[in-house]
Amino acid sequence: FGQGAHERVLLLASYAFDPSTYAFWVPLLHGGRTVITPEGEASVAELARLIVDEEITGLDITAGLFRVMAEEDPGCFAGVREVITGGDVISPTAVRRVLEHCPETVVRCAYGPTETTLFATQAPWTAADTVPAPLPVGRPLDGMRAYVLDGSLGLLPPGVAGELYLAGAGLARGYHGRPDLTAERFVADPFGPPGGRMYRTGDLARWSAGGLLEFVGRADDQVKIRGFRIELGEIEAVLGRHPGLAQVAVIAREDQPGDKRLTAYLVGPDGDTTVDTEAVRAHAAGLLPEYMVPTAFIVLDQLPLTNNGKVDHRALPAPDLPLAAGTGRGPRDPREEILCGLVAEVLDLPAVGIDDSFFELGGHSLLATRLVSRIRSILGVELPVRTLFQAPTVAALAEQLDRAPGSSPGESLGVLLPLRAEGDLDPLFCIHPAIGLSWAYSGLLGHLDRRQPLYGLQARRFSEPDAPAPGLEEMVEDYLNEIRTVRPSGPYALLGWSFGGIVAHAVAVRLQEEGEEVALLALMDSYLPTDGWEGERLSYDSPGVLSAIAESVGHDPTSPDSPLAGLGTDEFSALVEVFVNTANLSDRIRVGEFTGDILFFAAAADRTDGDPTPDVWSPYTSGRVEVHAIDCVHGAMTEPRPLSEIGRILAARLAVPETDPQENR
Description:
single chain; seven-stranded mixed beta sheet; 16 helices; 20% strand
């Protein structure tokens, strides 16, 4: 601590709370004094008076109480040499505010679990304009060590999040009378002296480029929403970067049984309750995948605190349920009301509006099958799954009901499938796998920016049954013509799964040969054919065709639960023909060289030594093959969990970089 900071220390914590050890032992062991606050809860005004009257030089205060004092009377710390705060997420706005009013005061942000009483790391701040958001938890104290490790206890490089372990002189020996718990949390330290131990904090952190520890969240503080595992701390960190907020808390509420959703609580500067929640929502939507954007945003004048000064999550108020998930426009007649209820049921949402897109709310092709099944059982109307691609909202779906059965295949089986046509970002074009359909890419809609247009390219055989079986060059020519109807010139972004990756690479090479820019080429578990890769050639009536299709798409295509079950007899026959023709192309594929890097998503589950690897693309690119391992098998690449991880990475690559204002001068 700074010189003279512990001459007169104010005791704010309960004797049973570990921060009290600083107020007792630091001053008393150095000839200083401990000033005890009067019994009972003191107001900010009383604490401010006590600081002045008792000439306090140092105090340790919880992050919650520090924020309250910073908002109500930031000048109350004038004369205090050091203010130590921690125990919870610290508000950068509060730190800046105190430093602006008390320029001679050091605000020391500290971190440390009870097992390292009192602190393990710290970061001092002396100037308001240097305080970042979110605040790092600092560097280890003298005699302490901090490791960020992966699941195998390997050291992780800067920028990569892992679990935080602490070691050193301040570490406890264990838990009294609990050898089992001690063995679980206090483990051997492979990086320290022989016989040393380290403590597994359960916190997630990463090292910054400047050597500071950044808190990410809790390893055991994950919540599961709609099948996705979510770190609440990550959402809070993103919301905390919005300039109009002083403090943020995010929790997962289940106010109605089975209805779990994210709720954000916002506090404006000085307790201002006029926070623009839509601006905060837009800020979150631009930086987080759809499933991590809170459903409700509640503005409070302050966050409730426990007796120990931490956020009291149990005291946070429940939100009012909105009429609809997005637009607020509710059903206009009984049939739309039923449809809204069915969509909400399938997507596990409290409610939806008639203009909310099924896919943007988290729907995908497998859930589409469930929805049309529920419509059939409740309304008695038979709809093919493809109808949802033409009419993804309740308002549009209601119109389709009047035309069922026998509605036209329309865009859902066309060569160019507009999964999302609107948006001002550069479109992403997704090329079909061997079955010839691009419906599975619909699951990306919930993970990409809402301004991101998304198109699928599909085999022409579905919309033109008499079209001849094309070779790779014919496909490239055909799909380029379709792409140019939407995007006449570059830059282009291309994605392909399985066989679609081979086509995407060929399209990218062709575009570059014509002088066009290809900004992104991404392949999903796509491998070039090698000798013996295909085995014997398939025919349309081969007994193994259906099992081969099932392996490629990850499910039985003849099952009533399959998205392909909605295809008619002719359309399913076309699918088999497309698959067989594609499988037999292996000896007619010629590969050029792409100029640039390839983004590769590899299905990492159940791999064997003899399987092809992403390195097969190295001779066909001037750059590198950047591999991201996805924990699934090949046929599951477009299921919700793998696609959420793929979508997150794609969204980051497709994001428009912020422009430096100097560049426009």
